[in-house]
Amino acid sequence: MSKGKLPPGLQLNAQAGEIVGAPTTVGEYAFTLEATDKSQPPQLAQQDFVVQVIAPLTIVWKEGPRVEGNAINGRVAVSNYTSDTFDLTVIIVAVNEIGRATALRYQKLDLASGLVDFEIPFGSTLPIGKYVVHADAIAEIASKSAIYRARQQTPRPLEVTQQ
């Protein structure tokens, strides 16, 4: 490798000319591989690569939490980037300034392999207060003893001012 780096968890086996392992960190990784032969003078070849490591489970705001009167409403989307069906649980709660949590949505479902942007609406009326909204997705693949988690959270509290 002449520049850049592989995703954590992957290694270059220079003797075999292959990349081995399993990536452990989500992100985009750019690197350049270089190979030379044993001729005189040696011949050199270089190739640039970009590897995108995607999380097996994602949850994103499709319509971020918003105050409407005395309610907080919105929509999330969950995606399964694996080759397995998930036993998925999604829990969305609004937590007020004293730590009281109110469920805005609880849903349990099977999320098929490769299903992207499955939308789940949420919402509920709430007492006056300031609320941070947490959206958690927990996926289990029992046959592989695997559990994946993903989370979103509002960056600052939302204020409900009406009863």
Helix-strand blueprint:
Layout: E1 3-4, E2 10-13, E3 18-21, E4 27-36, E5 44-53, E6 57-68, E7 71-80, E8 86-96, E9 101-111, E10 118-125, E11 129-141, E12 146-153, E13 158-160
Antiparallel strand pairs: 1-4, 2-3, 4-5, 6-7, 7-10, 8-9, 8-11, 11-12, 11-13
Describe the protein.
By secondary structure, the chain is mostly beta strands. The chain folds into 2 domains: 3-53, no CATH class; 57-160, Sandwich (Immunoglobulin-like), CATH 2.60.40.10. The protein has no helices and 13 strands. The N and C termini lie far apart (62 Å).
Produce a short descriptive summary.
With 163 residues, the chain is an all-beta fold.
What key attributes describe this structure?
single chain, 163 residues, mainly beta, Immunoglobulin-like, 2 domains, three-stranded antiparallel sheet, 13 strands, 0% helix, 65% strand, elongated
